[in-house]
């Protein structure tokens, strides 16, 4: 029996709909404060239709567009939930309209992004094969892709920061798993 489009969904239904494991949805709840499923007795999660659309948008940005978690967090912070929901449901007219209205609002306060920004909003990162250690490019160069200096270990500053971020994420996953045990 199919549910109404307005019905709340369990985590297993949402996971099946998005083709993701349930633990990924739980992890995203820790990374994106905008995801707030209703919780019932025993911690059972129920996702509202807007929550499901937001998750679809996050999934599209992470898996299809190549954004990092940090980049999606910046998009949500700067553009709001409606923008990411519009991406999730595939409403490109709404995305363009929201982008245009936000660009008009931001004109007086526009600033150039700092070079140390990890993820520029609106641009996906390079594929991972080209980000780490010169793979997919000139591996023998003493500089990274953007001409950044390479440390004594042969790893550029940006690659080192990416590795540290990945290590932090892994440690956070371990902490969450230890809590469950």
From TrEMBL:
The lineage's top-level taxon is Bacteria
Q: Which InterPro entries match?
A: DNA-bd_dom_put_sf, MerR-type_HTH_dom, MerR_fam
**Domain annotation HTH merR-type: ranges:** 10-78
PROSITE patterns per the UniProt record, alphabetical: HTH_MERR_2
Alphabetical keyword list: DNA-binding
State the protein's name.
Answer: MerR family transcriptional regulator
Native source organism of the sequence:
Hoeflea algicola
């Amino acid at each position: 029996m199919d549910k109404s489009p307005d019905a709340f969904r369990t985590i297993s239904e949402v996971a099946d709909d998005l083709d993701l494991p349930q633990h990924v949805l739980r992890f995203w709840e820790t990374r994106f404060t905008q995801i707030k499923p209703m919780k019932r007795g025993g911690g059972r999660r129920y996702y509202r239709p807007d929550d499901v659309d937001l998750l679809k948008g996050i999934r599209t940005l992470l898996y299809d567009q190549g954004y990092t978690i940090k980049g999606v967090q910046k998009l949500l912070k700067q553009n709001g939930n409606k923008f990411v929901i519009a991406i999730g449901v595939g409403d490109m007219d709404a995305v363009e309209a929201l982008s245009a209205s936000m660009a008009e609002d931001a004109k007086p306060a526009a600033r150039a992004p700092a070079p140390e920004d990890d993820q520029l909003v609106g641009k996906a990162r390079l594929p991972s094969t080209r980000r780490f250690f010169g793979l997919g490019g000139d591996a023998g160069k003493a500089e990274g892709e953007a001409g950044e200096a390479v440390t004594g270990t042969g790893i550029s500053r940006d690659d080192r920061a990416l590795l540290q971020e990945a290590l932090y994420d892994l440690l956070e996953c371990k902490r969450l798993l230890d809590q469950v045990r």
